[in-house]
Amino acid sequence: MNVKELDPESSPQAAFGARLRRSREERGWTQDQLGEEMGYSSTHISSVETGRKMPTLRFTRRVDAALGGDDAFEREWREIRHGVLLEGFPEYVAHEGRAVEIRLYEIGIIPGLLQTPAYAQVLADSAVRRGAITPEQAAERVAFLAERQEALVRQRPPLVFVVMDESCIRRPIGGRDVMGDQLEQLVEFAARPATVLQVAPFAIGELRTFDLPVNLLTLPDRSVVGYAEAQTRGHLDRDTTSVLPMLTAYHQLQAEALSQAASVAMINQVGKGIP
Q1: Measured between alpha carbons, how far apart are the two ends of the chain, in Å?
Q2: What is the helix, strand, coil percentage profile of the chain, to 5?
Q3: Global confidence as pTM
Q4: What's the rounded Cα separation, in Å, for the pair 37 and 12?
């Protein structure tokens, strides 16, 4: 059998593929056998090993489970993603995928976990036009977001609490169709059994407790970590002396925000008025 030679130094994706092939062969498995263990076709395995296909988060986790990699492949996958993500964000996402409760606050744009593919694509394309990222990085950014959203539909989904500043639903992104579909997605999100969606209206004024987006995760051991972003980097905070006040401020914000029913009514009203 002809085996395609792959230079692991040519790219991070090639290095991942070479490591996968080496680990498989050390186990003495064929691509068919590994694919059967993971629930993927041998063609898919081959495409990743030869660098033709980018591995997904789901794929890497199944590799670790099949080969006993102790999260080694997932860590390498996250390193590959560093080129399109803020510093600190990959570490946050690793916790996000295991969290039992997720609390989000966003200003100006719909939170990523709630974005439609079209809405996310418009934001990524805008970054390309500004020269902030390449088209390839834009595609990776949108694909990565889709993989994060899988966390919301896993067998035991986390409880997700979302408070959005009113600017999130008032700021037009992508035109009537894109924004209309996005607002409909928010209404559908609010109807799920494990979610709470609230809008913090402009009218609360100085009672808004955050001036920047905030993410808070409750982990399986009930510890809480916080994540916040500046323009050029993100910061994951595990220190309870700083995270617990953030959690308190989040609860205070929820108390001032509209109820979920009133929030959905506002979203529907905004949707009807999209030009």
Answers
A1: 60
A2: 55, 15, 30
A3: 0.70
A4: 25
Evaluate whether 200 touches 107 at the Cβ level (below 8 Å). Answer: no
Q: What are the b/e assignments for 186-201, b being 16+ CB within 10 Å?
A: beebbeeeebbbbbbb
Q: Residue 216: how many CA atoms within 13 Å on its side-chain side?
A: 23
User: Tokens for 170?
Assistant: 């008032």
| Domains of the chain by start residue, with CATH | 12-83 (1.10.260.40), 86-114+151-272 (3.30.870.10)
Neighbours of 236 (CB within 10 A): 17
Per-residue burial over 123-141, b if 16 or more Cβ lie within 10 Å, else e, is bbeeebeeeebeeebbbbb
Q: What residues have CB less than 8 Å from 261, skipping those under 6 apart? A: none
Distance CA 122, CA 140 (A): 14
Tokens of residue 92, six digits: 């946050």
Q: Which residue has the higher pLDDT, 53 or 247?
A: 247
Segment among 80-94, 112-126, 176-190 with least mean pLDDT: 80-94
- Sequence-ordered strand ranges (E) for 107-178: 159-165
Q: Is the dihedral of CA 56, 61, 64, 66 positive or negative?
A: negative
